[in-house]
Write a structure and sequence with these properties.
- The chain has 16 helices and seven strands.
- By secondary structure, it is α/β, with parallel strands linked by helices.
- The strands form two sheets. The chain has a five-stranded parallel β-sheet with strand order 2-3-4-1-5, sandwiched between helices. The chain has a two-stranded antiparallel ribbon with strand order 6-7.
- It is globular and about 65 Å long.
- The protein binds a DNA duplex (22 and 22 nucleotides) through α15.
DNA sequence: GATCCACGGGAATACACGGATG
DNA sequence: CATCCGTGTATTCCCGTGGATC
């Protein structure tokens, strides 16, 4: 047997085995540089931002629409491109102003899921504006705020895209939008959320709203086809399967991608080279019906993600009460049982898990509640597998 | 020495149920 | 019968402490 043949044989084997070409392309929390479709929506957002093209700060805009409609994808791509074309290179803080260059613009994208405190918010903002790295310890929130103001002092205008405003509890959002100080005056907000502005924060009431419609089945099929041709081996999925997935997801791209990744996970566990119907079914089953977005779960601190991962390893039985689950998890964790219990209640509060009143076992006292995950389980395990 | 925030623990409150009380 | 009480859990709320980092 000659070398050529040996190599060809290896290649064939490798090809058969390689179901996934680029897992990133399949991830529900990854956004392509150029979103598929959504052209008219982009236009309407740009209409709202139009003054920036004349060097003025625009009025606030709120983009809203149901889950999985590509809001984040659209806005991240937009901010990215705008920054590339319209903003000046990042400055160091003390840099003196160039005279006579008109209003200077800067853009920032902040995810409320990650920036949960005022501190995190300003930190992220500075990170977007300024070249030098900002310390995370030993510096006060006030100090950060002052630095932001300082940055704005030289007449800059900034456009801040603030994503997921109604999804986490951002009580400081109100203060920010209403604030009368330099930050309030020189900042144009591009907020993104599920709800119509009237139902989100009172500060958003008069803001121009752009609504993003749900994907039609054909559009979602296109989105999926794009992702799949980039992420999976050729012919790993049939066109019918893709259509079926799009129909099942009912316009929710997030759910579709989460199920897809779940299906891929199942196929890999099977060492299969194509997605079988059973894999697709397993993928769908790994996305519960009321289901929080993967982005929210992955934005949780590492310790909590670990707890969630352990939770998924428990049997039905072990999840039959909060205390029970907490005890089981604590056994294999460095965290105390009481902390884990608190986490579980927090998860329930934010919808990441659901507490279901157990069919009462006739015991004395308040009946326990079973713990059910409400996030895409297989996709989560795949994406969160940052081993320690 | 300063800062933020994750941990951990415990107090307060809610709920379920059976039984006693009016 | 309606209400209250006691007991045992479940759940929520709150806050001091200390780690890690600047």
């Amino acid at each position: 047997v000659n070398l050529e043949e040996r190599i060809l044989r290896r290649m064939r084997r490798g090809e058969g085995r390689r179901l996934v070409v680029d897992e990133n392309a399949l991830s529900p929390v990854w956004h392509p540089e150029g979103p598929v479709g959504r052209g008219p929506t982009v236009e309407r957002v740009l209409d709202g931002l139009d003054p920036i093209f004349e060097g003025r700060g625009p009025d606030d805009v709120h983009v809203h629409g149901p889950a999985g409609t590509g809001k984040s994808a659209l806005v991240t791509a937009l901010v990215d491109h705008l920054a590339r074309h319209l903003s000046e290179p990042k400055d160091t803080i003390g840099t003196t102003t160039r005279a006579g260059s008109g209003t200077r613009l800067a853009f920032a994208y902040v995810d409320a899921r990650a920036a949960t405190s005022e501190f995190e918010f300003y930190h992220r903002l500075l990170d977007e504006f300024v070249k030098e790295s900002i310390p995370r310890r030993g510096i006060s929130t006030e100090e950060l705020r002052d630095r932001v103001e300082n940055y704005l002092r030289s007449g800059r205008s900034v456009v801040v895209a603030f994503d997921h405003v109604d999804d986490a509890e951002v009580d400081h959002l109100g203060d920010l939008l209403r604030s009368d100080d330099l930050i309030g005056r020189r900042t144009s907000w591009l907020t993104i959320g599920r709800n119509h502005p009237d139902d989100t924060h009172e500060e958003l009431e008069d803001v121009a709203a752009v609504s993003v419609p749900k994907y039609h089945r054909a559009e979602l099929t296109d989105v999926l086809t794009n992702r799949i041709s980039a992420g999976l081996a050729r012919d790993a999925m049939t066109h019918d399967q893709i259509r079926d997935l799009a129909e099942w997801a009912d316009g929710d791209a997030h759910a579709a991608l989460a199920a897809l990744l779940g299906a891929v996970d199942a196929a890999l566990a099977d060492e299969a080279s194509v997605i079988e119907p059973s894999h697709l079914a397993a993928g769908k089953a790994s996305v519960p019906d009321p289901c929080v977005s993967l982005g929210r779960v992955l934005a949780l601190p590492e310790n909590r993600q670990t707890v969630l991962r352990r939770l998924l390893e428990l049997t039905e039985d072990q999840r039959s009460s909060v205390s029970n689950a907490a005890a089981e998890i604590a056994a294999a964790s460095s965290l105390s049982e009481s902390t884990i219990r608190r986490y579980l209640y927090e998860f329930a509060e934010s919808g990441v898990v659901e507490r279901e009143r157990a069919a009462d076992a006739g015991g004395v006292g308040r009946p326990p509640s079973r713990v059910e995950p409400r996030f895409p389980t297989r996709a989560f395990v795949r994406l969160a597998s940052v081993e320690s």
